[in-house]
Design a protein that fits this description.
Length: about 280
């Protein structure tokens, strides 16, 4: 049974993080609400160690969103990357993690923790690569054809961006080791090999999820074209006020669905690797 004091602690900490993000203009009012609900649920059902991983993703995302925000504003205007996150964007990134937490609460299977780890690694890797990658002066390449495209284009990747994604996933892996040990969790690796496997699984899952995000962006994600500005965009109404024309993808497969799908893959990869290594 969930204790009242744990609920209060979870709510207070989640509220503090949500208000912090809102004050830094990383979340909208609805995004703040989603973050508070998600954080509270993960803390209650997964534990403080699970919440710590969510907090690492959350806090680093806030700082990276605000980092050189002015330089990224042009990309943010055309593509659904970076900028202020709303309710659905928060759930697209953390919703799967929020569903795994209650499953772990009731069943306690270690593989569910690794699935959670895969989700957080994926969204962290993708966010770090996006927020820092769009500051690059060199043009990335489309993941499907290798064609050079403008910075911020959905489906574009670069060596630098992929390396940043790996570092983001690594940060989650290291944070997981620390959080599990501090919490005295039975999930904490008991050997150097176990610690190495946890970090390796986290990196592979995070990078795989981030790359799938790019693949979806280049293939099935809805994309549009502004005939006035002569620019590709993810928005049906361009910032210039002109209604855009669909050029590829499915109308319902927007950036939020891409994030949701890639986080699911990250969860599946991490869970699969854990099972194979057990």
């Amino acid at each position: 049974m969930l204790e009242l004091h744990r609920l209060l602690v979870a709510l207070i900490i989640s509220l503090a993080l949500g208000v912090f993000a809102f004050s830094r203009q990383a979340l909208s009012a609805s995004g703040t609400l989603a973050a508070i609900l998600l954080g509270t649920g993960v803390f209650l059902l997964g534990g403080a160690d699970w919440f710590a991983l969510l907090a690492v993703f959350f806090i680093t995302s806030v700082f990276l969103t605000r980092f050189k925000a002015g330089a990224k504003s042009e990309v943010v205007r055309d593509f659904a990357k970076g900028g202020v996150r709303d309710f659905w964007q928060v759930l697209a990134n953390g919703g799967i993690a929020g569903l795994i937490a209650p499953a772990f609460f009731y069943y306690g299977a270690p593989v569910l923790f690794y699935a959670f780890l895969g989700v957080i690694a994926t969204v962290t890797a993708d966010t770090w690569a996006t927020e820092l990658g769009i500051l690059s002066k060199s043009r990335p390449r489309l993941i499907t054809t290798g064609e050079k495209v403008p910075v911020g284009t959905s489906g574009a990747i670069s060596v630098e961006g992929t390396a940043i994604a790996a570092v983001g996933a690594l940060a989650i892996g290291v944070a997981a080791l620390v959080a599990l040990q501090l919490a005295g969790s039975t999930l904490a690796p008991q050997s150097l090999r176990g610690a190495f496997l946890l970090v390796a699984i986290t990196i592979v899952a995070g990078v795989a999820g981030a790359l799938l995000d790019s693949f979806f962006g280049a293939t099935v994600q809805s994309m549009y074209y502004c005939t006035h500005c002569k620019k590709e965009t993810e928005k049906t109404l361009h910032h210039c006020g002109v209604k855009t024309a669909a050029i590829r993808g499915f109308a319902w497969f927007d950036n939020d669905i891409v994030n949701l799908a890639s986080s699911m893959l990250g969860a599946a990869v991490a869970a699969g690797l854990y099972i194979l290594s057990a």
